[in-house]
């Protein structure tokens, strides 16, 4: 009985330490890269389209707290081979009011961009 | 003899152990930073403002679809209507560079390059110094289909607790033949300092 309890306890501890599974390729989560800390803001739906030859993206962001939040972000544009195209984007600041939901629009730097990553960080 | 050799060997080992293997030379107080970082040192016009304006305007124009068939564009200096000194040529240079990289437009010599262009054509055609087959002929310069011009203005408000600076950058693409503005966009930036 004692061995069973110890075994069960070990299993619970191991499960608690397990890293979450990686996001599925192509999913919204797979496009978000958290740089260190990212708290109080949730990433929702992502819309990607090609307009006049350029990849465009709209990312839904929601402030899930009852206080104003500031976040830093930038898009990293990737070619069909998964490697970056063109120069890196500038880091930008986004302020979100309490419980505000907004869409973050972006246009790719070059027509060769086929995919993107959104790098995010809160102060 | 053995003792002397041992001391020399120990000194050699110690010296080689202390050799500087770092590729850095000079003061540790000086660092290279991220050129794309958000700069908030003061609330005057800064590198992040310049980069954000250039990025936003270039992408909006390139993706608008107006630049069909890589038209020739003449870029004019951005008018500085703010109370600050801003090197607006750097804004136009960044926009021009980024548009060039997208491959959506070609650029005619602007007002600052024109004199050098004319001087070079005159030198090639009038000096008699060059082999005729290699001389660039006059009368073949490509005229601009569009001109790109913009302005930046600011509203500055101060109180005992706050300083608020609001920048508005406007850019428009005008068809030279018709005089019609075919594309326009704005970028607004607000910077607030709490004292």
- Fill in the CATH topology of the domain at 45-123 and 141-192 in chain B: Rossmann fold
- At CATH's second level, what is the architecture of the domain at 45-123 and 141-192 in chain B? 3-Layer(aba) Sandwich
**Which CATH C-level class of chain A is it?**
Mainly Beta
- Judged by helices, strands and strand pairing, the structural class of chain A is mainly beta
Model regions low in confidence, pLDDT < 50 over at least 5 residues of chain A: none
Rg of chain A computed from alpha carbons, rounded to a whole number of angstroms: 19 Å
- Here the CATH topology of chain A equals Immunoglobulin-like
Q: Please summarize the sheet with the most strands of chain B.
A: 6 strands, mixed
CA-based gyration radius of chain B: 27 Å
* Interface with most residues: A-B, 20 and 18 residues
Number of helices of chain B: 4
Number of strands of chain B: 6
Helix content of chain A: 10-25%
Strand order of the largest sheet of chain A: 1-7-4-5
| Approximate shape of chain A | globular
């Amino acid at each position: 009985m004692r061995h069973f309890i110890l075994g069960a306890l070990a299993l619970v501890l191991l499960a608690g330490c397990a890293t979450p599974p990686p996001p599925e390729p192509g999913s919204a989560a797979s496009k978000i890269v958290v740089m260190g800390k990212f708290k109080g803001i949730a990433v929702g739906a992502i819309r990607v389209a090609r307009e006049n030859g350029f990849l465009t993206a709209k990312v839904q962001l929601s402030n899930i707290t009852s206080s104003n939040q500031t976040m830093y972000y930038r898009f990293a544009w990737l070619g069909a081979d998964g490697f970056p195209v063109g120069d890196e984007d500038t880091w930008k600041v986004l302020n979100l009011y309490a419980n505000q939901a907004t869409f973050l629009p972006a246009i790719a730097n070059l027509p060769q961009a086929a995919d993107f990553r959104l790098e995010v960080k809160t102060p | 003899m053995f003792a002397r050799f041992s001391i020399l060997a120990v000194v050699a080992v110690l010296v080689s152990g202390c050799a500087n293997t770092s590729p850095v030379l000079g003061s540790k107080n000086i660092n290279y930073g991220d050129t794309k970082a958000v700069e908030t040192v003061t609330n005057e016009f800064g590198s992040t403002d310049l980069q954000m304006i250039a990025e936003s305007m270039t992408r909006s124009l390139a993706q608008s679809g107006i630049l069909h068939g890589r038209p020739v564009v003449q870029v004019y200096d951005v008018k500085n209507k703010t109370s600050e000194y801003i090197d607006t040529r750097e804004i136009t240079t960044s926009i021009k560079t980024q548009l060039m990289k997208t491959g959506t437009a070609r650029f005619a010599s602007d007002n600052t390059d024109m004199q050098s262009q004319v001087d070079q054509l005159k030198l090639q055609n009038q000096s008699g110094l060059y082999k005729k087959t290699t001389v660039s002929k006059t009368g073949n310069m490509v005229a601009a289909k569009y001109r790109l011009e913009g302005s930046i203005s600011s509203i500055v408000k101060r109180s005992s607790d706050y300083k608020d600076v609001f920048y508005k950058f406007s850019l428009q693409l005008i068809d030279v033949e018709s005089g019609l503005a075919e594309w326009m966009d704005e970028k607004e930036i607000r910077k607030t300092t709490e004292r």
